[in-house]
Amino acid sequence: MEALTHRSYLNENKAAGPHNERLEFLGDAVLELATTHFLFTKFPSNPEGDLTAYRASLVNTVSLAESAKMMGLNDMLFLSKGEAKDTGRARDIILANAFEAVLGALYLDQGYDAAEAFVAKHLYPKIDAIIANKAYQDAKSRLQEAAQEKKNITPTYKTLSEEGPDHDKKFIVGVFLGEKELARGDGKSKQEAEQSAAERALDVNGWK
């Protein structure tokens, strides 16, 4: 239950056990090691920069949330009534965190080999499509190239809001062409939020 308990649930259920942020912290480290080793082995000739880009696409919020949904975690989460109504990006973040928390719990309960097998089942098969679709390419770079080519303007980014405690920040960033806002994105860091905003701007303008 702990791995699937969001912090918000405790606000309405004081007697509930701990929330999943400690397990998420542990699972994140296990996930990084497992995917790094997988990519290092699978692509023995690729430089570090390529492997870093592949890993970022494999373990980003969208990818983890997609896997969590396929596992049925969306129906197992313990959320506050308010959080339970969230959809889209907000829910994806919760699901991605839950995926990492489940991985952390599995590591504690059954060890690294079982945790790595879990990652192998749910994430490794995505890598071929990621490379085929060039999903690993940096969204900000792609947006900058497209904007300069089509509009002769370099995009700029502005942090619109920042909320949450230091260990669980949420940033909302807007991407602009001149004074025009193209899209907004959010993430646990400004960099992640900027990438999210760039990805959405590419979608909105059909520049992919």
Q: pLDDT under 50 segments (min length 5)?
A: none
Fraction of helical residues: 55-70%
Mean pLDDT: 92
Any guess at the CATH architecture of the largest domain? Answer: Orthogonal Bundle
Give the strand order, joined by hyphens, for the main sheet.
1-2-3
Spell the H/E element sequence. HHHHHHHHHEEEH
Termini Cα gap: 40 Å
Q: What do we call the CATH homologous superfamily of the largest domain?
A: Ribonuclease III domain
Tell me the CATH topology of the largest domain: Ribonuclease iii, N-terminal Endonuclease Domain, Chain A
Report the sheet with the most strands, covering strand number, pairing sense and barrel closure: 3 strands, antiparallel
* Coarse shape: globular
User: What value does the Rg take, in angstroms?
Assistant: 18 Å
Q: Provide the structure class.
A: mainly alpha
- Specify the number of helices: 10
Give the structure's gist in a few sentences.
The protein is mostly helical. The protein is 59% helix and 12% strand. It has 2 domains: 2-132, Ribonuclease III domain (Ribonuclease iii, N-terminal Endonuclease Domain, Chain A); 139-205, Double Stranded RNA Binding Domain.
